[in-house]
Every structure is written in C-alpha cells, then in structure tokens.
Amino acid sequence: MGDTTVTTLEGREAAVPHPVADDADETGRGPLRRVRTPRRPRLWFEVLLIAVSYWTYSLIRNAVPEQKAEALSNADWLWKLEHHLGIAVEESVNHAVNSVTWLIVGMNYYYATLHFIVTLAVLVWLYRSHPGRYAATRLVLFATTGVALVGYYLYPLAPPRLMTNGGFIDTVTVHDTWGSMASGDLKNMSNQYAAMPSMHIGWSVWSGLTIFALARIPWVRLLGLLYPAATLVVIVATANHFWLDAVGGILCLAFGYTVAWLWYGALPHALPKLVPQPRTAKTRTAETRTAETGRAGECPPAAAAITTQRRATKP
Questions:
Q1: Other residues' Cβ atoms within 10 Å of the Cβ of residue 14
Q2: Domain contains 301
Q3: Residue in 104, 105, 114 with CA at minimum distance from that of residue 203
Q4: In the chain, how many domains are there?
Q5: Which DSSP string corresponds to 272-285?
Q6: Tell me: the pLDDT tens digits for 92-150?
Q7: pTM of the full predicted structure?
Q8: Residue 167, C-beta contacts closer than 8 angstroms, at least 6 positions apart
Q9: Is the model's pLDDT at 170 over the cut of 50?
Q10: 176 in a structural domain
Q11: Is residue 163 situated within a structural domain?
C-alpha cells in the first residue's frame, strides 16, 4: 500500500517502497523516554535547583523533632552494639587526636567546610567537563540525601560528644573553633540529634567515587579515594559520629545509585561524557541530500536486474 511501480523493459513491475523518515524514532519517543535522555544542563536552573534543594534539606532536617531522650537512648544502645562487635574505638581516637591541638583544630575546620566545598566543586566539574553524566550523578546525590531525611526522622541519634556517660570530648567547644553547626553558638540552628546516617560520609564517598571513576590524572583519582577515608577519621575524631553512622551513609548512597541506575538504565560513569546533539530538520535534510547524491552515480535497481538477466541468457 502506497508503493509505486516501475515497469521494466520486459513488462515486469518492480515495487519501489517510499523511503521511511529517518526521524521516526525521535518523533515517536514517549514522554518518559525523552525525560530520561540526558540533556545539556542549564546553569541558571542548576544553581536554582541546588540552592532550593539544600534549603529544603536543611529545613526538613531541622524540623525533625529533637527527641532528646530517645536520641540518647539510641546512642547508648549503638555504643553497646559497637562494643559487642569489637569496633568501639571512637573514644580512643577522639582523645588521641584531641591531644594534638593543631591537628584537631584543622579537623574541626575540615568538618565544617570541606563537606560543602568539595561537593559543590565536584558538581561544577561535572557540569563543565561531563555534561552527559551530570544529571545522573546529581540524581544519585539528591536521592542519597532524600533517603537520609527519612533516617533522621525514624531514628533520632545523639552524636558521641553529647552522650551523658560516653566520656567523649566536644572538640569544637574545647578548642573554641568555628566548626560544627551542632556545637557552640550555632547549636540552636541545627538538629543535634540527626547523626544517623552520616551525610558527611554519604557526600564524601559520592565525591570520591565520582572523581575516581571520571578523572584521568592518576594522582587526582588517588585523592578521590583518600577524601572519604580522611572524612571518616575526621567525623570520628571530632566525636560527631559513630562508625555505624558512616555505614548508614554508605547504605543511603547505595540507594541513590540504585535510583539513578533504574532511571537511566546505567550507572552515571557509564553514560556518554557529552550530550548528543539533537538532529534538527536542517541536519536531516543535509543527510538526505548527501545520501541521494551518493546514489546518483549508481545503476538503478530495475536496470541493474535487467542487465544481469541479459548477460545470463547471452550465448
């Protein structure tokens, strides 16, 4: 149906189908597939999205009821569990590092600043150098943070420095440094009982894995691996988290990667580095003309068949 016919010299008719539009797949894609396809990120949108998302995250995190009694009870139970597992060395690390003033002061500032600086720096690097992977990697970060909010609500947990009989040192208070939002003059601005899971670990492992998977310079990739390891030491030495808080952060990150994999059909680092340019009508017209020009010098199919038949019947 819709085919034209060509009459050959011997009276036979050969059907010549109409050409199929090259952009059928593009125009026929469903809305869900179009949404899943990576696109070039827009700077104004990304800045606005990140700012609004972090503001919302802070608002919800701090709106979670500060259930002090339950949070302290959970901290005591977790501390006993770590003793049972043989990993309860946080107090020893806290006291040992606190004895070296310059080291613990540096860790206080590390805890207060790099959590934000490194995460934003990795997002900017992805935006500039890996636009095709940016949206998927950002989705991992957002999903990780979102599920962490559920953890804050369902399992309030006091950090070690706030335990009644833990013997931990609040290093920010002792050394009078500008550090944790949950210590000193800033403690009233942040929920102090949202230690599980640790987003310092969730975000630092996200940053480290992203750098390790996508960076090309060996020493930069090594730094990507060292960053979350250093963060783990810092959160324990400053008595802001237990080891198991870090495990919770990693589990949240695993959830984030699962969401991105289900949405995009691949992990972020496996997606194309650059966003494919959309085929415009002008591009398709040029491709069609090029194809027609290439076929102009060829023998038409019907004539070629007649020539082949004559050669076969020639004595």
A1: 15
A2: no
A3: 114
A4: 1
A5: -SSPPPP--HHHHH
A6: 999 999 999 999 999 999 999 999 999 999 999 999 999 999 999 999 999 999 999 89
A7: 0.74
A8: 91
A9: yes
A10: yes
A11: yes
